[in-house]
Write a structure and sequence with these properties.
183 residues, alpha+beta, six-stranded antiparallel β-barrel, two-stranded antiparallel ribbon, 3 helices, globular, Peptidase_S1_PA_chymotrypsin, disulfide bond, Peptidase_S1_PA, hemostasis
Length: 183
C-alpha cells in the first residue's frame, strides 16, 4: 500500500464471500469486506449509493454510459499509481457473447452479470481493477448522486481493450438482499 500524509490504513476484520460464487463462470462474483474501524469521509472519500431495481432498469440498458475506476494495468502494461477512469457503454448480453464467440472465446453471461465497453475496444477495465466500481448517475435524483450498479469481474484472457471483447461486471442489485444481511 502506498502511504501518503492523507492515507489512513484500514484493516479487514471479516470477508463475506457470496455463498453461491462460481469461480469457473465468475458468476455471483461479489464479496463484502468488513473493516475494523469506520472510514472517515472527506473530499476524497465519499460513500456510494446502492442501486434499486428501478435504477438498474434505467441504467443497465444498451448504450447507457457508466464510469469504471481503478488502479489496474494501463496502456503501458504497468499498474497505475493514480486512480484511472473510463466511461463505458453498457452492451447487450447477446452482443457480448457473440463478440467473444467470434474470437473463439465462448463464454456465458449469466443473469447476474452485464457487459460494457466499445465494439472497437480501446477503453476497458484491466488486470488489477477487479472488485472496483462501475457507477452511474441517478437521473431520478434532484441532486447528483452516483449509484454502484456494477463490480469489475472479468475480461478477455487475451488482454484489455480488444475489439468486441467487452468487460464483464457483477450486477449489484441482484445481491441486495444478501448485502442487507450484513449492512
Amino acid at each position: 500500500m502506498l502511504y501518503t500524509t492523507q492515507t489512513l490504513p484500514h484493516y479487514i476484520q471479516e470477508i463475506h464471500i457470496y455463498p453461491d460464487y462460481d469461480p469457473g463462470l465468475f458468476d455471483a462474483d461479489i464479496a463484502l469486506l468488513q473493516l475494523d474501524s469506520p472510514v472517515q469521509l472527506n473530499s476524497r472519500v465519499q460513500p456510494i449509493c446502492l442501486p434499486t431495481e428501478q435504477s438498474t432498469r434505467d441504467n443497465l440498458v444498451e448504450g447507457k454510459r457508466g464510469v469504471v475506476t481503478g488502479w489496474g494495468m494501463n496502456e503501458n502494461e504497468t499498474y497505475s499509481e493514480t486512480l484511472q477512469q473510463a466511461v463505458l457503454p453498457v452492451v447487450a448480453r447477446e452482443r457480448c457473447e457473440k463478440g467473444y464467440a467470434e474470437s473463439d472465446l465462448p463464454l456465458t453471461v449469466t443473469e447476474n452479470m452485464f457487459c460494457a465497453g466499445f465494439e472497437a475496444g480501446r477503453s476497458d477495465a484491466c488486470s488489477g481493477d477487479s472488485g472496483g466500481p462501475m457507477v452511474f448517475t441517478d437521473d431520478s435524483s434532484k441532486e447528483r448522486k452516483w449509484v454502484l450498479e456494477g463490480i469489475v469481474s472479468w475480461g478477455s484472457p487475451q488482454g484489455c481493450g480488444n475489439p468486441k471483447q467487452y468487460g464483464g461486471f457483477t450486477t449489484v442489485s441482484k445481491f441486495l438482499d444478501w448485502i442487507h444481511l450484513f449492512f
